[in-house]
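hi! just following up on the protien thing from before. the input was this:
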Amino acid sequence: MGSVQEGRGFAFRRKQKIERQYRKLLKKGRKVHSQQDNQFTDTYPEHLKHLYLAEEEMLKKRRRAPSDSVLSEEKLNKAVESVMTEGKFKKKTSNQKAKEEYEKIKAERARKREEAEKRKQQREAAQRLYKQKKMEAYKILSKKTKRGQPNLNLQMEFLLQKIEQNT
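and the predicted 3d structure came back as:
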């Protein structure tokens, strides 16, 4: 799985990349140690910055209130954890970005599909109601007397109801 023998070597390349970055940091560290005057500056490596800042805060709080040291350490541990989790979520791989984009598109399509389904149901309900009213009107207006003549009394009542509904 990702081995050099299989011809993929993803893990191997990743390992080499991390090793190169580590060596680079070591070289930078040697340069910093050689310059003793810059030893106590506030420039920390980016990947360890949150640890240094948390330690600095802890030392400041110890100077202020030594009795609350246990509580402050717990608070700092929580702060360090939150900073670490923020750092984890900051960088996203292209695969994660693509997945998020896909999920957004999928959600948008689902929403549009639901809206279209709702509109379709409303339209069908309106058509059923319209057909029902038309059928009732047709039944009333098409009634005939025994001799086959249109029943004018029913027609007049129907027109009267229609006028009353409109006003």
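Residues 94-141 form the longest helix (48 residues).
The chain has a mean pLDDT of 81.
cheers
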